[in-house]
Amino acid sequence: MGDSTGWQPYPLVVQDRQSGALVGACPCYLKLHSQGEYMFDYHWADAYHRLFSPTDSYYPKLQVAVPFTPVPGPRLLVERSLSPARQTEIRTLMLKALSQETDRLGYSSAHLTFCSAEESALAAATDSYLPRLGEQYHWFNEGYEQWNDFLQSLTSRKRKTLAKERKRANSYPLEIVTVHGSEATQQQLLSFFRMYQATSMQKWGRPYLNLLFFQTLARKLKDQLVLFLVRQKPSGRWVAGAWNLRSDSALFGRNWGCLEQYDLLHFEVCYYRAIDYAIEHGLSRVEAGAQGTHKIGRGYRPRPVHSVHYLRSRPFRQAIARYLESETEEIEYRIQALSQLEPFKNR
Known about the structure:
It is a single chain. By secondary structure, the protein is an alpha+beta fold. It has 2 domains: 3-135 and 303-339, Aminopeptidase; 142-283, Gcn5-related N-acetyltransferase (GNAT) (Aminopeptidase), CATH 3.40.630.30. The chain is 38% helix and 25% strand. The protein contains 9 helices and 14 strands. The chain has helices at 42-51, 84-105, 117-124, 147-152, 156-169, 186-203, 211-221, 265-280, 314-339, and strands at 7-9, 12-15, 22-26, 28-31, 61-64, 77-78, 109-115, 129-140, 174-180, 225-232, 238-246, 250-258, 285-287, 301-311. The strands form 2 sheets. It has an 11-stranded mixed β-sheet with strand order 1-4-5-7-14-8-13-12-11-10-9, sandwiched between helices. Strand 10 (225-232) and strand 11 (238-246) form a beta hairpin. The longest helix has 26 residues, at 314-339. It is globular. The termini are far apart. The model has no long low-confidence stretch (mean pLDDT 93).
């Protein structure tokens, strides 16, 4: 993290006036671009540059987020022992401080991405922040003890489809192994990094994360990092893999990479193996991130995610507000419509 990455740490903290104790904090950054956010505002930046002079840049901006991952959760962190009313007061104070700091610095905006629904409602009630809705795809463990329990919850047609896909994906001369960060070798990490590079360049043109990032996460997170790696038989060459993070209750699918293409292997490694892992380890859900309606047919359900945005320029704020009204209506309709496509018997 730092100037060279475009993520400069700029944390906001709240201390009690009398005791000096830390009672609130949020992970804030000075952002020089919009990469690594997953709830993107590139088109907002383009509109900002058209509305104002080219020298009045959209960047830097303030960004409250967990870098490089779209995992929803609280962003305005408050001491748990405090009363609910006091917690709300501190969160409101942090929201006000973020907007004031944006004004003081002369920045275009401040953003809280993938925050909780409660934080979004609190921010929207201030009239300074604009709420934004997004969507992700999550799989939920309904008390399944094995894969077949999940399979039996699906309609007959979908059961047959998933069974055929898994059979096809596992028919190649490949071996799929599960590796945790504590046991990952440097060769495995290097191989996955090369897969990530190759896939990123095909999709976006430039990989954003470096090898040290993956090595550091494996060392620091240990068993909270879960890799599904694919190697060829009999050469042992690593050719594909999925990078996941794990909490006490959920598995978060983050990155996929491959050096060779195999039909349906992506579905097996990213979606089905993640479900297998969640069932085996008693996790309540798998969060597979945004994009890809094909996830619905494989048991992943569309779910809303939230962010809020403070825009310093009043004309710009009004323009974005009109845009968000339309976007929110579209997202709400989309989630409702996609939910009707879920493959479960008792939908």
